[in-house]
């Protein structure tokens, strides 16, 4: 077991999961707008499993998907963080993931949380690179990643394993950010 990191940004706490987070997570993952670029909305059991996996990842690695909490009112607004990627890549690499409730969009909170996670990745964790994947049609997600300095690798598009080739979400784009590029 390693030391678990809890992070803070100007307006957010990136913290370990609380049991009370399940109901707001279920609402988040049932929202068709939030889940627009995911193959399916998640059930209560899916959300509970995400919390368990996230807690275990945090325990084993010191980082993972953190619950996002607003500092001003303590509200759970989603999650953001890093997990060891299951993508077929040559090296073990952390993958950036996030989801935030619609009522908190347009305030820069996702970007703030992602920047905090990346700062941890390249600082405290000493990682060499971080990747992220979004569907090719997910323009808001692509803009976020490019705004964070991540660059797409057009040669590394791939089909989502859980989505049929005819589905608009099938084609995924891999983004990368290396530590040296982050420093610049």
TrEMBL record:
SUPFAM superfamilies: Acyl-CoA N-acyltransferases (Nat) (SSF55729). Residues 12-180 form the N-acetyltransferase domain. GO terms for molecular function: acyltransferase activity, transferring groups other than amino-acyl groups. It comes from the Bacteria. InterPro entries: Acyl_CoA_acyltransferase, GNAT_dom, N-acetyltransferase. Pfam families: Acetyltransf_3 (PF13302). This is GNAT family N-acetyltransferase. It comes from Stutzerimonas kunmingensis. The lineage of its organism: Bacteria, Pseudomonadati, Pseudomonadota, Gammaproteobacteria, Pseudomonadales.
């Amino acid at each position: 077991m390693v030391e678990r990191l809890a992070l803070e940004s100007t307006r957010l706490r990136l913290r370990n999961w609380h049991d009370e987070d399940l109901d707001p997570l279920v609402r988040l993952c049932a929202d068709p707008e939030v889940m627009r670029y995911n193959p399916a909305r998640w059930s209560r059991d899916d959300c509970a499993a995400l919390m368990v996996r996230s807690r275990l990842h945090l325990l084993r690695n010191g980082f993972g998907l953190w619950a996002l909490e607003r500092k001003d009112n303590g509200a759970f607004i989603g999650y953001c963080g890093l997990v060891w990627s299951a993508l077929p890549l040559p090296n073990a690499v952390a993958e950036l993931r996030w989801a935030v409730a619609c009522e908190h969009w347009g305030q820069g909170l996702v970007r703030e949380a992602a920047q905090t996670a990346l700062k941890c990745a390249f600082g405290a964790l000493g990682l060499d690179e971080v990747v992220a994947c979004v569907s090719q049609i997910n323009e808001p997600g692509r803009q976020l990643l490019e705004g964070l300095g991540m660059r797409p690798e057009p040669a590394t598009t791939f089909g989502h394993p859980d989505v049929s080739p005819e589905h608009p979400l099938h084609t995924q784009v891999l983004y990368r950010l290396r530590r040296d590029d982050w420093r610049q």
